[in-house]
Amino acid sequence: MKANEIRNQFLSYFEMKHHKIVPSAPIVLRDDPTLMFSNSGMAQFKDYFLGYQKPDSVRIADTQKCLRVSGKHNDLDDVGKDTYHHTMFEMLGNWSFGDYFKKEAIAWAWELLTEIYGISKEQIYVTVFEGDDTENLPKDQDAYNFWKEYINEERILNGNKKDNFWEMGDQGPCGPCSEIHVDIRPEAERNKVDGKSLVNMDHPQVIEIWNLVFMEFNRKADGSLEKLPQQHVDTGMGFERLCMVLQGKSSNYDTDVFSGLIKKLEEISGVLYAQNESTDIAIRVIVDHVRAVAFAIADGQLPSNTGAGYVIRRILRRAISYGYRFLKLEDPFIYRLVDVLTIQMGEAFPELFKQQNLITDVIHEEEKSFLRTIEQGLVRLENLIQNSKNKILSGSEVFELHDTYGFPPDLSRIIAEEKGFTIDEKGYEVEMNKQKERSQKASASSTSDWIILDKEQNSNGIEVNFIGYDQMEADVNITRYRKIENRAGEFFQIVFNQTPFYAESGGQTGDTGKIYTPEGFIEILDTKKENNLIVHLTNQIPSNTNNLRIAVDRKRRLDIMKNHTATHLMHQALRNILGNHVEQKGSYVGPDYLRFDFSHFAKLTNPELEQVNTFVNDRINDHLALEENRNMPFKEALATGAMALFGEKYGDSVRTIRFGDSIELCGGTHVSNTSDIYLFQIISESSSAAGIRRIEAITGQKALNYFKDFENKFNQVAEKLGNPANVVQSIEKLKNENESLKKDIEEFRKKEAGNQKDVWKQKAVKFGEINAVLVETSMDNASIKDLVFQLKAEIESAFIVVANSFEDKPTISVGISDNLVKEKSWNAGNLVREWAKEINGGGGGQPVFATAGGKEVSGLGKVLELARNFIKN
Question: Which site from 47, 164, 311, 398 is most exposed, i.e. has the minimal number of CB atoms within 10 Å?
């Protein structure tokens, strides 16, 4: 049975059991401060479990893209070393929100596995929670009793809290679980060793494939457990492991989920799989990691140096490093796997087809960039080796190669070992631990449990009551609050029964404003969305929690609204001017400026940028009124031409924003008429990533100030030029005069250098067969290089060292004749690196010519002394 059939059969089965089949949520999470990525199937349903939101259906099934590379659930270091761990994996799941519970979940799991998929009952073991006295939790006797109806009691095993009490993180929904394990060892092995002794023992062929979680509790910040309002079922079955079982394989990587990728990688590298342990690990790492990176990019997360983007970049670089080290792949190659991946998984996840070009281009550019980093790192590592006074490389310097320059530490170790060196591992660990401590201090925070003030709202489920489209002030009550602490200090998060404050989402920054109290006012510093809550950040709690007046910072909000509407108009302009391939790939909308990332293959020309400016300003001058629909079915909205944006998750009902011909799905705040924007101006255009351009722009008063500033600068330039009638012509005249003077100076320098050549030639001193020219001078480095090569051409067996101080900057230039390099194995690059220490600098180059720069002019005399001693010895 092929992988696609296995997936479809799972979804069809639960559809017959009256489950609503929903698409996978994006792998990158936007509104959950506790998680960067979906690390389980339940992440997108967290609000339902906590009672923050009511589901459209009490029964749901899906296949969820998951990524486990950070936090509590982190499988990154295990990937490749075994045959069943992955960074990105699919989780098949069925869910009950206050509907069926243990009995049905167990019955349906057994029926699907044994009767539909045909797994032998004699190969299945199940576990149940044995209880935990420290938590005052009893054994899950109900699950045990239900399992007894289907399976021999000898195959029902007790599991401890670690294995059989599932928790998403330090806080949140949790509960006892029942795992289903399958023993896929050959029959002879199963007869020798009982499979139950191998359950949860990391045996590669006695594996857990399905976990049935019975959500009953919520883990609070103080570690205690409280009962959830309702009982829920959350099951997760590892798709890749299921395919291994049903396809009769002994490894996930032998299934058709991975076989196509492995075959393509064999073709690219010339290295066959299943031949050598180290290359097998490398191949598994690469075919696993390309999936994680591709899905993250498809869902809107581009590689970067911070947050989730840093994690994706790290995964990709890990794959590149394995290919470089073990498969000898020194050119970009991972991007060539995207076609195969898209064909394999595009039917179930159409975003791969839609974003295929972007995924390919981004990976290709990231590969080129990191391979350049490796090349540069090799040079730096060679310098460390050359300058090492013994056979041990400094751990702190190797760490700096990794931390500052991105050079893989494993590669440093391999190269050092090849050259007979070792690395001071203790020193390396000291620096690594320092970095971890810095990172932990920077991110250290604590969050208390919510103090619930509105018990009725909490028991009925919390519905977002955002009123900020129509008003910027409101009378409110606090329904819950909690304290948080971080590096910046102590703060409070507040939820009101209604709010006009917009919570940061969709690229638009959160509102700020005030809470008015009888004593005065409290600043609202920021507004964010956490799951389905709108959370207001303050530095104190009002003494009275009811009958409060809150108000958004009106001027700031109006500036944000101008920038958000301008973003829509610019998006329309770019598609009209550049083509329909333009799609939004990210944005920031704040009060000071807007930033817009979009797909395009080339830098925009000045005429194109001017066209975009003109297009947007024309729409502003057209006085286009806002046409808003706050509750339109998603499919109907798309049929009207509304654009769904990159990486966003939409519900069944959406809000549309139209200004003339521009129509988008959007939850943000906008001006009521484009004329409110007043003025639009692009201030920069650059590359954000491969195939992604970035425009930054300003509107309103800031755009007007921008032009006023230009006018002031222009007037200042005109004044400096004597207020000529034509400022541009005057600048051109100055430019031409400057070029002419530069040519005169260059001619003078060449003549001066020519005179110096004869002087230096006369200073040549013979040391046996060697003609040494050791001089100290003050000259530009280009002229020195020219002179050194001229002297080498005119003097046999030349050894030339020039100690130079030009504009208070010391430099060293070394030139050696080819015959001396060959006969004596002299190397100008090695010499200049060593001598550069005297001027507190560094450098390098070729054996026949090298240069170095530094900071200490006073060390130049010592350099010439070292050069004389070198020749004498």
Answer: 47
